[in-house]
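Repro:
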Amino acid sequence: EYSIVNEYLFYPAQFWAHKNHVNILLALKILAEDYGLKLNLVFVGSDQGNQQHVRSMARELGVYDSVHFLGFLPREHVIALYTAAFALIYVSFFGPENLPPLEAFALGCPVIASNVNGAEEQLGDAVLLVDPCNPQQIAKSIVQLRENRELRLDLIEKGRLRASKYTNEDYIQDLLNVIDEFAPIRRNWGV
């Protein structure tokens, strides 16, 4: 339906700067230039003021033709995109209270995620963790996942197991912990 041909990386995230779309574009360029690997990249999410910048960077980097900007989609389309994706690439600068990695686990999609505070505790060994500021490392993790079928299958299995054990209550508790940790910082500004 969306004219996506060949393997693709999937990133369901609204277009805010902290979602780090540009470093994924840089990784896509590295994949093509350094590894001869051309993958598509599917962005799903509404524009929160940064989509035009991301589109401009995709053009500037020469990867625009490999990037699909699909906007906000119905749930059933997002589920289909997860299940057909080569991998979820979730390299937000913040987290790990984000749902996409957990959704990917449940749907059998391997995950590459940001190594931010709390990521190991939430995601365990069911992901490849990367420095979200390092496009080279992001690209290497994609290559590693592509070249090592056993690793990919292992991550899918560990993800499914982790998803089956992660309850709604666990997610709510994680969110409450983040809010508690942020409260001393938030009290420093008035608005």
